[in-house]
Amino acid sequence: MYSELLDKLHSKKIVVVGAGGLGGNIVNLISRLGIGKILIFDGDIFDSSNINRQLYCNQFTLGKNKAEVAAEETRKIGISDAESIPDFFQEKYFPLIKGYDCIIDATDSVSARIYLEQVAIRSGITVIHGAINAYFGQIAVVRPGDKTLSKLYSGKIEPTRETISYIPATVAAVQVCQMVKFLSNAAPLDREEVLLVDMFSCQMRTIKL
Amino acid sequence: MIKIEFFGLYRLNYKMSSWETEAADVNNLLKKLSEYNSFYSYKQLKDSIILVNGKNIMDLNRFRTRLKEGDNVLIMSPASGG
Fold first, then answer.
1. A and B: number of Cβ contacts within 8 A
2. CATH of the domain at A103
3. Is residue B50 one of the residues assigned to a domain?
4. Which of A3, B9, B15, B20 is the most buried (most CB within 10 A)?
5. Taking phi first (over 0 means left), then psi (-120 to 50 degrees means alpha), and beta for anything else, what does residue A121 get?
């Protein structure tokens, strides 16, 4: 069963938007799953404030582009093909994501996430959403046309508070789990369901928006 | 009594994961909560995701959604960092 799953994943192509706290952990996990191709977007560079939680940030990568470092690390593992775009995902990149199987949301703002909901509609590609704040996070599988992110971010959102290393790692792992379940038709989260993660009380629960 | 469960930053800022009160509707509940603990104003609380017995109040009668003894309310603030 495990080898069948890996065979399925080998033919898949994944877009990761953002290579910071969530994105670095996500790229690391999916690059060890045998995913065929990983396309990574991030226009940002590593700085010393990232070192507490961003997997690929270290003394050797400070000042380097996050997407380029993530792709380089993936190539070092030697399983998946990786490509980096040292820029934020935008209109001009639509042709590049054609034929991809899913997009992983590892962005860090409400506006970027609302945009990804639109990208899902326009591209027909499902977005695996994840976000963190302090000890908390949420994960959702946003199919094209779902209003999950518009509903989540309909009110004024509280500013992001400082987080620590195991929060992005935990939420990233659950996102990758949902990605695998989605790609292998193994009962991923339903439409407009959101999995809430609370690492303060060590609880998870699913709600329907 | 109505049980209110908090999720996300509400848990940290209120320093409690749940609270119980009596309230006629969601509007009344949010007013009572902002009076009980002033960390969030009534206006700020209205920006939350609110579920009554697992259903989003936006699909019910919004802030006028009636509450009755034994109802479970979940109030959460979504995360947006990455």
1. 88
2. 3.40.50.720
3. yes
4. B9
5. alpha
Kindly list the residues from chain A whose CB atom is less than 8 angstroms away from the CB atom of residue B5: none
Chain A closest CA to B70's CA: distance in Å?
19
B67 with B73: CB under 8 angstroms? yes
Contact assignment for A133 to B8 by CB distance below 8 Å: yes
Residue A207 to residue B51, Cβ atoms within 8 A: yes
Do the chains contact at A136 and B8, CB–CB below 8 Å?
Answer: yes
**What pLDDT, in 10s, does the model give residues A4-62?**
888 889 999 999 999 999 999 999 999 999 899 999 999 999 999 999 999 999 999 99
The domain tally of chain A equals 1
pLDDT score at A1 = 61
Q: How many CB atoms within 10 Å of residue B54?
A: 10
Residues of B in contact with A107 (CB under 8 A): 82
Residue B82 belongs to a domain: no
Inter-chain contact B80–A131, Cβ cutoff 8 Å? yes
Tell me the backbone φ, ψ of residue A18, rounded to 5 degrees.
105, 130
Gap from A2 CA to chain B (nearest CA, Å): 30
Please compute the mean of the pLDDT values over residues B1-18 and round it to a whole number. Answer: 95
- Give me the residue from A23, A133, A152 closest to B9, CB to CB: A133
> Residue A199 corresponds to which tokens in the numbers above?
């690492």
- Quote the number of domains for chain B: 1
Mean residue pLDDT across chain A: 95
Residue B68 structural domain: 2-76
The total of other beta-carbon atoms located within 10 Å of residue A154's CB is 14
The answer to the question of residue B24 being in a domain is yes
Which residue segment(s) compose the domain that A139 sits in?
2-208
Within a domain: B81: no
Which is nearest to A101 in space by CA: A197, A202, A188, A2? Answer: A188
